Amino acid sequence: MRRKNIAEVLLLAKSVAFFYGVDIFTNEATRHHSGNGNLGLIPVTLSASVYIPLLLLTIAITHAWASKCRVAVRWAILLCSCCIVVAAIYGEILFINGKMILLGDWDNPESKLYRFPLLNQYTNTFFFNGYTFVGGLAVAVSVGVAVSFRTISSNNT
Questions:
Q1: Selection from 119, 128, 122, 120 nearest residue 100 by Cα
Q2: What does the pLDDT read at residue 152?
Q3: What is the pLDDT of residue 50?
Q4: How many CB atoms lie within 10 A of CB 45?
Q5: Which residues contact residue 111 at a Cβ distance below 8 angstroms, ignoring those fewer than 6 apart?
Q6: Rg (CA), the chain
Q7: What is the DSSP letter of 92?
Q8: I need a surface site. Which of 2, 39, 41, 43 has the fewest CB within 10 A?
């Protein structure tokens, strides 16, 4: 179990660093059009390659830990993580709406998004930001706890 915890901390640190890298390499909406391509794809790829194993390890560790807890504690953790997911979704919606006001619409030839795909030099942070980071971890905790409920109920029958 100790190795899993060390791996979790290392993956968490790398994920935070790569998510920050996505933010650094994403062009700001207030800057002029850029023709340099999407340098943010490098940290996006690195973020995804580290974040997905982090989520899977979080599910495994949460499941192992929650299986030893009382049912009331598991329900409280599930409720809290669901509230965090709702807050992260709300924050994500506000974040994207604020960016879209600055960037314009994909159909408007005057906007910075015109003729760009969904993942581009201005929208990398739509998918890799603090809201998706925290929300994803909260979903992983919810899944781990939910699986522990299923494991306990199947052991009792």
A1: 122
A2: 59
A3: 94
A4: 12
A5: 103, 104, 105
A6: 19
A7: H
A8: 2
Of 124, 125, 105, the closest CA to residue 115 belongs to 105
Question: Read out DSSP for 2-61?
Answer: HHHHHHHHHHHHHHHHHHHHHHHHSPPTTSPP--S--TTHHHHHHHHHHHHHHHHHHHHH
- Check residue 107 and report its DSSP letter: T
**Residue 155 has what pLDDT?**
59
What is the amino acid identity at position 12?
Answer: L
pLDDT of residue 51: 94
- The answer to whether residues 103 and 111 touch, using CB atoms and an 8 Å cutoff, is yes
pLDDT of 149 reads 86
Mean pLDDT by 10 residues, the chain (157 residues): 81 91 80 67 90 94 92 95 97 91 78 73 85 96 92 58
On the 0-12 / 13-18 / 19+ scale of CB atoms within 10 A, 150 is exposed
